[in-house]
Structure formats: C-alpha cells, structure tokens
Amino acid sequence: MDLKNLWPKKYAPPIEKALKFVEKYKSKKIVFKYGGQVMASDQLSKAFAQDAAICNLVGIKNLVIHGGGPQIKNRLEAQKIESKFILGLRVTDEKVIKIVEDVLLNEINPDLVRTINSFNAIAEPVTARNENSILKVKKAKNPDLGFVADPEEIDIDKLNNIINTNKIPVIAPMGLGNQDQVYNINADTAAGTIAIKMKAKRLLLMTDVPGVKDKNNNYISRLTISEAQKLIDNETITGGMIPKIQTCISAVKNGVGGVVIIDGTRPHAVLHELFTDEGAGTLITK
User: Fold this and answer.
1) DSSP for residue 80
2) What residues have CB less than 8 Å from 94, skipping those under 6 apart?
3) DSSP reduced 3-state for 91
4) Has residue 110 got a pLDDT over 90?
5) Is the full-model pTM beyond 0.90?
6) Which residues contact 232 (CB under 8 A, 6 or more apart)?
7) Is 242 in contact with 221 (CB distance < 8 Å)?
C-alpha cells in the first residue's frame, strides 16, 4: 500500500507523522458519523470521503453513518413545510418521513458511496430498503415526534460480513418498524448504538464546531463522562449538542474506547484526529 499516492496534497497532517498512528488503529473498528454542514460543502464532503477511503486502505475497519439535516431542511423549505424540533430531534409526520426517506436513501447514501469509491476503496450501501437492512426500531417515547424511532436491534453479523471483506458500510439512519414502516433515527443515536454493538475503539461524531465549550466559551480538548454530564446539568451544553453528548456518554459507558466530537468544517478532520497527537476536537473517555 503506497500511502504517499493516497495522501491528500492539501490540508492533511504530514504523512511522516501519520505513519506511527497507522499501527495504533490497524484492524480496529472505528465508527464515523458524517453530518451537519460538512454535507452541504462539496469540498468538505469529498475530503471526508477521501479520509474514509484512506482509513480503510491502511487496514482500519471503519463504518460510516450519515445524517442529512441540511439537505432535508432545504427540501422541506422548498415544499414550504416547517421544520419543528423537540429536544434537538426532528418532528416527522407522514409528509416529512417521505421526504427524509427520499433524501437519505436516494440522494445522500448513493452519492457518498460513489464518492468513497472514487478514492479506490469499496463502500457498500446499508439502508432500510436494501438487502443490507440492519436496523429494527422501536418508536420514540414521545408520540409528538411522529415517525421517529430508537434503534432496538442491529444486525451485527451483516456489518461484520461487510467490514471483514474490507468494504466500508455506509449506513443511512432509518430503520424498519411494524408493517415495514420506515422510521427516522437521529444519526448520532444510530452511530452511538452501532459503535457500542460493534465494540468500536473510537466513535467520531462530525459537527459544525471545533468541539465542546466550557462556561467561558473556550474549547475543551478532553472530558470524562462525569465532566460531560455536569456540562449538560448546568446548561453549558444546550440544544442539538445535548443528544450528541448523551450519545457520547452512553457509548463510553457501554464499552466504546472513546468518542470524539470532531470539527467537520475542517478539511481532513478525520486524518487530523486519528493520525496526530493533537487531534481535531473534544475527546470523551471514562
């Protein structure tokens, strides 16, 4: 494997430094959650796809779960449908679920698969509507959320079969409930649950910010789960960051080696996080 030919020419960490980290993560399972404004930028989405391909090609067993917030928002606005949220989760009625399904399964998922494949790796689509369907769900506790669910069962064997043939599963965060009804799942929650079930060494949650801030608005490079919980309790962490941090806490409590809130607005953030000492976000561990 000639890493020099694969390595991005711009914005990536120096390849000489990166090499010593390759052994650290080789054969380890790492889950990437790709979402937020990263997806709205062509440059950033290509950089992410290249990072995912490189990780796979150096021997990391990586899985990708994607969101679709910006694209779903644009489609709803174009159809003059108002977006409503409860505690950071999108209220999803019959009209909205059809749009979510179309955007995630027919637009984002195949596009991401194609882009990763263009960097010499092999990505495999995993959606609620294809033979790789892995997520069975239970409806969210709050009935006002509509067609929103939590993951109940995950077909780990299917995912292991994909990664053991050196392919990258690209997972859409939708699952099937009763009567084959599709439900929307918060992509962070889906990523956290999959990371736990797969016993991942790392879960990387891409966001639109460089990490978690303290009360004085300074970014924090490392947190324990109890420190993270305190930041929720004292309302330092608010809004859409709450479900993200709850996902981090749950993942670490249940055996994931560490979770990183990573700055997806930085090109090649994944390479900076995994292959440098300084990382690229807030690492949450026990």
Assistant:
1) T
2) 146, 147
3) coil
4) yes
5) yes
6) 242, 245, 246
7) no
